[in-house]
């Protein structure tokens, strides 16, 4: 990591001049094991060797601004209007975040207006301006019991100039963008137009991804719910594969570039014998290839279960030209079906005609309501986002980093992707739990 302290400083619109509703509560607070003072910072690194390697004084070590309420805020709460938008793929907990933002802004800051934009960035365009909804406590009362997002979502590019026009027309001071890497890139285009026009509008990101592929954040919200859902499907194919002769269970799970869902779901119920993820390439043929390993497993145990992340082994698939979705994300080939075909073919050839159960739970793992753990996480992120916005932070994302809520510059979260490290301890745990080899063939 070549990060310097200056790369981690977040932008502010200006000095905070208004009293915060939390001023009294904060008056006596100091940093403790359970609280980081607003003037204190959280270290990025957590190992002695890395800190020593940096070779700089402690106050020059890479660190992050603590999230949370401030004694003074930038926006005059009574005169403030905010907007909320949810973009990209669904994720458990979106409604919890929306609800948390609305409750915090209403009950503590008493802001003037809270607007919800419908269906992602499309909702900020001229064409959809009339679909904007005003949000209050009543509108968000029990939305956390449902999956999805009450605001809707979408993929696809929109003109940032037109979107900023909408913010100006509605008098929005703070825009909360709940979205993934694409949404944060879109949010940065908004801040650049806002800067060009000299406007006083803050843009705060709340990172969303069930793939858990955003960097500088501990597991992202909704991830735990999603992989817990996924375990149910693994358990089903396990039962099915046990009951059949030469039973083969295959579950394909979401994870475009990162195999976190596959790893965690597999570790959770420990029924998987093989986990295939995008980060660890594999070959099918040859003595150490997947097919021979699967065959060996079936010979020894009479059945086998494979968990495969959708982005795994894409290089094995013959695809006619690469296509992308409306947001520019690469469309993937179906590795699950390909494995099903290849395994069936191979086991039939070696006289172990299989019964294959293939499940692709797809949207069933991301469209559900958040579990209790994720709901807590969501509401705390929502609070942090509101405090950041009211304090005039902009182009800033609120994240939980090593269990502390902090602010990071938006550019960092789009800079690279969080992936399972084949040399890291998570993959080691997967190998330990499944008993699969560290690699498959040359
Ligand atoms: N480079 C970009 N510049 C501007 N907007 C972008 C960019 N990438 C994605 N977006 C927009 O952000 C929204 C969400 O992006 P998408 O990739 O679908 O989901 P996610 O935010 O979950 O990664 C879409 O409306 C998309 O057009
Ligand atoms: O069918 P859709 O909506 O494009 O979603 C599929 C993709 O969405 C994901 O859940 C990720 O979504 P985001 O890019 O919005 O984070 C992937 O796991 C999956 O490949
Ligand atoms: Mg994305």
TrEMBL record:
<feature type="active site" description="Proton acceptor">
    <location>
        <position position="211"/>
    </location>
</feature>
<dbReference type="InterPro" id="IPR050929">
    <property type="entry name" value="PFKA"/>
</dbReference>
<feature type="binding site">
    <location>
        <begin position="155"/>
        <end position="156"/>
    </location>
    <ligand>
        <name>ATP</name>
    </ligand>
</feature>
<feature type="binding site">
    <location>
        <begin position="209"/>
        <end position="211"/>
    </location>
    <ligand>
        <name>substrate</name>
    </ligand>
</feature>
<feature type="binding site">
    <location>
        <position position="181"/>
    </location>
    <ligand>
        <name>Mg(2+)</name>
    </ligand>
</feature>
<keyword id="KW-0067">ATP-binding</keyword>
<feature type="binding site">
    <location>
        <position position="310"/>
    </location>
    <ligand>
        <name>substrate</name>
    </ligand>
</feature>
<dbReference type="InterPro" id="IPR012004">
    <property type="entry name" value="PyroP-dep_PFK_TP0108"/>
</dbReference>
<dbReference type="InterPro" id="IPR000023">
    <property type="entry name" value="Phosphofructokinase_dom"/>
</dbReference>
<dbReference type="Pfam" id="PF00365">
    <property type="entry name" value="PFK"/>
</dbReference>
<feature type="binding site">
    <location>
        <begin position="254"/>
        <end position="256"/>
    </location>
    <ligand>
        <name>substrate</name>
    </ligand>
</feature>
<comment type="subunit">
    <text>Homodimer.</text>
</comment>
<keyword id="KW-0324">Glycolysis</keyword>
<keyword id="KW-0808">Transferase</keyword>
<feature type="domain" description="Phosphofructokinase">
    <location>
        <begin position="82"/>
        <end position="388"/>
    </location>
</feature>
<feature type="binding site">
    <location>
        <position position="89"/>
    </location>
    <ligand>
        <name>ATP</name>
    </ligand>
</feature>
<feature type="binding site">
    <location>
        <begin position="363"/>
        <end position="366"/>
    </location>
    <ligand>
        <name>substrate</name>
    </ligand>
</feature>
<comment type="similarity">
    <text>Belongs to the phosphofructokinase type A (PFKA) family. PPi-dependent PFK group II subfamily. Atypical ATP-dependent clade 'X' sub-subfamily.</text>
</comment>
<keyword id="KW-0963">Cytoplasm</keyword>
<keyword id="KW-0460">Magnesium</keyword>
<keyword id="KW-0479">Metal-binding</keyword>
<dbReference type="InterPro" id="IPR035966">
    <property type="entry name" value="PKF_sf"/>
</dbReference>
<dbReference type="GO" id="GO:0003872">
    <property type="term" value="F:6-phosphofructokinase activity"/>
</dbReference>
<keyword id="KW-0547">Nucleotide-binding</keyword>
<dbReference type="InterPro" id="IPR022953">
    <property type="entry name" value="ATP_PFK"/>
</dbReference>
<comment type="pathway">
    <text>Carbohydrate degradation; glycolysis; D-glyceraldehyde 3-phosphate and glycerone phosphate from D-glucose: step 3/4.</text>
</comment>
<keyword id="KW-0418">Kinase</keyword>
<comment type="function">
    <text>Catalyzes the phosphorylation of D-fructose 6-phosphate to fructose 1,6-bisphosphate by ATP, the first committing step of glycolysis.</text>
</comment>
<protein>
    <recommendedName>
        <fullName>ATP-dependent 6-phosphofructokinase</fullName>
        <ecNumber>2.7.1.11</ecNumber>
    </recommendedName>
</protein>
<feature type="site" description="Important for substrate specificity; cannot use PPi as phosphoryl donor">
    <location>
        <position position="182"/>
    </location>
</feature>
<feature type="binding site">
    <location>
        <begin position="180"/>
        <end position="183"/>
    </location>
    <ligand>
        <name>ATP</name>
    </ligand>
</feature>
